[in-house]
Amino acid sequence: MSSAPIDAPKASRQSVSTLAEDLRPTLLRVSRRLRQEAQRLGASALDITLLAHIKRHPGIGVSGMAELEHMSKPSMSGHIKRLEAARLIARVGDAEDGRRSGLNLTHEGEQQLIAIRQLRNDWLAARLSLLSPEERTSLEAAIEPLRRLVSIDI
User: Fold this and answer.
1) Is 20 contained in some domain?
2) How many domains does the chain have?
3) Is the pTM for the entire model greater than 0.90?
């Protein structure tokens, strides 16, 4: 009985597919649990994303936010108005173009992001503390490859 040589690229694709199949549901569950922690403070996933964008890009306009989130300007405008009404963000005039306004976090918006980050970190830390030192070391080793994974633009 002779064995045919293994097609390396095919075998590699199969192992990558298997890894993707195993990794995807776990990443989704972790993401969902972290979102649920934020929802305890009444914040939706989109709220948090928008607040984080504004924190990273102070003065960004509604159009820029819509582009970042691949959303229509009218839809984004509705979300921005809701965050304004909740006093989490404020519009600021553009020094160079008086017709344009940008968005900044308010003190309340900053505090909301800090509280959400703390809840999420507490949830994660409580679970990490139950893992063995070897398991935590394995997760630590996976951080950089996961960062690279999410930064790849195909």
Assistant:
1) no
2) 1
3) no
